[in-house]
Amino acid sequence: MRRLALIAVFVAAALSSCGTSPRCDATNCAGCCSFSGRCELGTETTTCGQQGNMCQPCTAVQTCTSGECVARNPGGDGGTTTCVGGGTGPQQGTDGGARQGYIQVQQNPGFRLALGAFYADVVPGGLLAGCTSTTIGPCIILDCPLDAGTGGAAPVSAGDIQVKIGSETISMTQVAAGFYSGSAEIGGWWADTITVTASGSSDGGAPAFTATLTAPARYELTAPVPTSVTRGADLPIAWSTRTPDYIQLIGAGSVRPVFCVPEPSSCSMTIPGNVTQLLTTGSGGIGLRYESNVVVTPSGWVIRNIASVVTVHTVVVQ
Question: String of b and e for 172-190 (b: at least 16 CB within 10 Å)?
């Protein structure tokens, strides 16, 4: 895996300033140790920690107190919580025309992943052609055969694609099946701006394009956070500050994606029991997904660029 330039800069800076300084740990650092091995105070939301442990970034609804990420006080509104935005649902399956493509950049703990594909001849129904969906309350269950999601066409080239995130760059490569992918190790979370640049293909592929996205922030479920899900029982969940674009339910062995879309600007939702019944028993998760997306239309193409961050809370499905 390609090592990031930013990590190299951090390492070089540490070496040049410290020479033969000892490794950061509990014996020489009262705060926290950064990804590059530097001792930090451990009092910032971007580098929170104590007693020589690894620094952790706090979420947008947390603050760093005594070296720990804790929930912010909602303020003097009598305990009332307000939330904004969200509730858009999954954005990838556009049906905007015969020539379509997408780039999705996802932030995960410890790494970033970029995926994409471009199709010059998509059948009506868009990139989800061939899939069937079932709606149960606020949730959508997708059933897609293995050859679905291509609109009946093989992926084409869009030339060289680079995703720039702050000072870091992910170079995407086109694999044998025609899809693009790329990944990068990281030590922190998003920069503010993400730029996607494709050089384009003159051989029947997608044209050159540039798209700039604002990176979404990361939020988490609020107490009480479920640690288990009972199949067939309603599942109430809550969050603060910003409404997720959608919730993804993950059940052990479950192959059908389950997406639940909250009401915009809501701070909670209840997932119906006839949806949790679809999960299989074992280890699972509740994923809060936040996205920003920009659609560009070069030379008649419809190309959706998506930046997403997902926070997964592990649960036991029983």
Answer: bebeeebebebbbebbebb
- Whether residue 294 contacts residue 307, with contact meaning beta carbons closer than 8 Å, is answered with no
Does 275 or 72 have the greater pLDDT score?
275
Q: Residue 70 and residue 58: Cα distance in Å, rounded?
A: 8
* Cβ atoms of 190 and 107 closer than 8 Å: yes
| Domain span holding position 36 | 5-71
**Integer Rg of the chain from CA:** 22
Q: For position 62, what pLDDT does the model report?
A: 66
Three-class DSSP category at 76: coil
Compute φ and ψ for 48, nearest 5 degrees: -110, 130
Say how many residues make up the chain.
Answer: 318
- Same domain flag for 138 and 67: no
**Across the strands, what pairs with 284?**
315
Q: Are residues 16 and 136 in the same domain?
A: no
Please give the pLDDT value at position 155.
85
pLDDT in tens, 139-174: 988 776 555 445 556 788 999 999 988 778 899 999
DSSP conformation class of 276: H
Taking the CA of residue 123 as centre, how many other CA atoms within 13 Å lie in the half-sphere pointing to its CB? Answer: 11
Alpha-carbon distance of 44 to 48, in angstroms, equals 5
Q: Are 149 and 63 contained in the same domain?
A: no
Q: How far apart are the first and last CA of the chain?
A: 37
Q: Does 248 lie in the same domain as 150?
A: yes
